[in-house]
């Protein structure tokens, strides 16, 4: 019981992210109209054979909805619009850095195979505009008419919140010290940097707010430290955490810091980044400056800029991370039951993580199928199952399993459910379970 209370306490920042920090505000208005940008021609797609469901974004949420909406309501004519031509996941990427999996594990998955296996269309295009009145999505490859539209574009970085507003520094950070939570090419760069690290100080920052994958920065720090220890490198990992405590699985991570990496990991809570001098390799905070030899600088996150571009922002009183203005239970844009936003661009205080997005997407697929038939379904909670590998030699992990509570009177998600469990004792069994968990997610998105 004490472990679960500790988890709930240390995760309170994430749970409050949708409502806290209102004073910071955001620009944008819930009623702002999206630019009705048209390509002037229709996309080269077959004529819809049923209600057309267009899903934007081929991440965990979008792939799951494209598959399961079709399963729930076979009459749907589903089109997945994705700007990438090759899939690569963020989840388990930290394991690749430590040599525990190969790049093939992350990237050997085909949008084409997913579409063929699950009877929908993969359309390789970039969204350029939205005409909600005319139910038309504009892309660089032509316009697409829809009956239902799901937008699942993930996150964007918000460097302004770590004191970096000039474009030169932003560009340098993106290219030289990437956060490693958005683009697949970031993983390739981080993998090289970590494998080539020869000593000194490697800084891993942790942002405030509800950032993507709460435990991942701490997991990455542990795996870098594991390599330093294993290879007998004269170096250390400094974690600059903007939060007052490890945001999730605190007991398990602190045990790893103290028992496995004493003198290698230096954990500094309550230290928010206020600026970065790239040339001098220095991070500025409220009280100190930290010099580094290399770093993964993870800024605050916001919803994908696509949400703002399409005029779908929530008011600042509902989201200070520029997320979408959607119904708490059913994910449709307020006042528009044809357009939905899911995954990490939603304002819910759920974990922005793969398993959460996957289980949430199963539910949204049911919502869409029911509404296409003139029905409604009851709200159900997503599930957050998350493994964090804290030791590479041998491979050991800790984990958590969580659900959430919806308060109808407040129309809000108010916290974790009483059945939430944290497993802070690291062991090899959970290390192996991490790999099986990832395989299960890939099967659920790509296989028939």
Description:
The structure is a single chain. The protein has 448 residues and is α/β, with parallel strands linked by helices. The chain has one domain (1-448): FAD/NAD(P)-binding domain, CATH 3.50.50. The chain contains 13 helices and 23 strands. Helix 3 (60-72) packs parallel to helix 12 (354-372) and helix 3 (60-72) packs across helix 13 (428-446). It is globular and about 65 Å long. 51% of the residues are buried. Residues 1-32 have low confidence and may be disordered.
Q: What's the arrangement of secondary structure elements?
A:
Layout: H1 2-10, H2 12-15, E1 52-56, H3 60-72, E2 77-82, H4 93-97, H5 103-107, H6 111-118, E3 121-124, E4 127-131, E5 136-139, E6 142-145, E7 148-151, E8 155-158, H7 167-176, H8 184-195, E9 200-206, H9 216-230, E10 235-241, H10 250-259, E11 265-268, E12 275-277, E13 282-284, E14 289-291, E15 294-296, E16 300-303, H11 305-309, E17 332-333, E18 336-341, H12 354-372, E19 384-392, E20 395-402, E21 404-407, E22 412-416, E23 421-427, H13 428-446
Parallel strand pairs: 1-2, 1-7, 2-3, 7-18, 9-10, 9-15, 10-11
Antiparallel strand pairs: 4-5, 5-6, 8-16, 12-13, 13-14, 17-18, 19-20, 20-23, 21-22
Helix pairs in contact: 3-12, 3-13
Keywords summarizing the entry:
4-stranded parallel β-sheet, disordered N terminus, 6-stranded mixed β-sheet, 448 residues, alpha/beta, single chain
Give the CATH level 1 class. Alpha Beta
Number of strands: 23
Output mean pLDDT: 93
For the record, give the distance between the C-alpha atoms at the N and C termini, rounded to a whole number: 40 Å
Radius of gyration, in Å, reads: 21 Å
CATH-derived topology:
FAD/NAD(P)-binding domain
- Would you tell me the structural class of the helices and strands? alpha/beta
Which stretches are low in confidence, meaning pLDDT under 50 for 5 or more residues running? 1-32
Global geometry: globular
């Amino acid at each position: 019981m004490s472990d679960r209370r500790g988890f709930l306490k240390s995760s309170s920042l994430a749970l409050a992210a949708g409502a806290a920090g209102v004073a910071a505000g955001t620009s944008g208005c819930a009623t702002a109209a999206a630019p009705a940008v048209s390509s002037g021609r229709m996309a080269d797609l077959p004529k819809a054979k049923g209600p057309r469901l267009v899903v934007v974004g081929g991440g965990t949420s979008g792939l799951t909805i494209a598959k399961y909406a079709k399963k729930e309501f076979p009459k749907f004519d589903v089109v997945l619009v994705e700007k990438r031509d090759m899939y690569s996941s963020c989840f388990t990427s930290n394991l690749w850095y430590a040599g525990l999996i190969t790049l093939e594990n992350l990237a050997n998955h085909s949008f084409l195979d997913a579409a063929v296996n699950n009877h929908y269309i993969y359309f390789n295009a970039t969204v350029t505009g939205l005409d909600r009145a005319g139910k038309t999505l504009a892309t660089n490859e032509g316009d697409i008419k829809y009956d239902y539209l799901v937008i699942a574009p993930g996150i964007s970085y918000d460097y302004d919140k770590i004191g970096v507003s000039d474009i030169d520094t932003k560009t340098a950070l993106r290219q030289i010290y990437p956060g490693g939570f958005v683009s697949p090419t970031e993983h390739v760069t981080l993998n090289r940097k970590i494998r080539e690290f020869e000593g000194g100080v490697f800084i891993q920052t942790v942002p405030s707010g509800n950032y993507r994958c709460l435990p991942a920065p701490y997991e990455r720090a542990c795996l870098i430290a594991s390599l330093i220890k294993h290879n007998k490198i004269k170096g250390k990992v400094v974690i600059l955490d903007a939060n007052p405590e490890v945001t999730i699985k605190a007991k398990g991570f602190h045990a790893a810091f103290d028992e496995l990496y004493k003198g290698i990991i230096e954990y500094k809570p309550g230290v928010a980044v206020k600026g970065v001098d790239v040339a001098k390799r220095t991070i500025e905070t409220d009280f100190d400056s930290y010099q580094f030899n290399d770093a993964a600088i993870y800024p605050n996150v916001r919803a994908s800029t696509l949400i703002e571009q399409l005029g779908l922002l929530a008011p600042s009183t509902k989201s200070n991370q520029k997320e979408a203005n959607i119904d708490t239970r059913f994910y449709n844009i307020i006042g528009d039951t044809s357009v939905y936003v899911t995954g990490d661009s939603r304002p819910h205080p759920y974990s922005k993580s793969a398993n959460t997005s996957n289980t949430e997407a199963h539910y949204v697929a049911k919502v869409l199928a029911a509404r296409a038939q003139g029905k409604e379904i009851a709200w159900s909670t997503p599930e957050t199952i998350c493994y964090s590998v804290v030791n590479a030699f041998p491979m050991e992990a800790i984990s958590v399993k969580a659900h959430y509570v919806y308060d109808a009177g407040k129309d809000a998600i108010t916290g974790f459910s009483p059945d939430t469990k944290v497993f802070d004792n690291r062991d090899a069994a959970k290390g192996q379970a991490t790999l099986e968990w990832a395989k299960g997610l890939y099967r659920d998105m790509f296989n028939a």
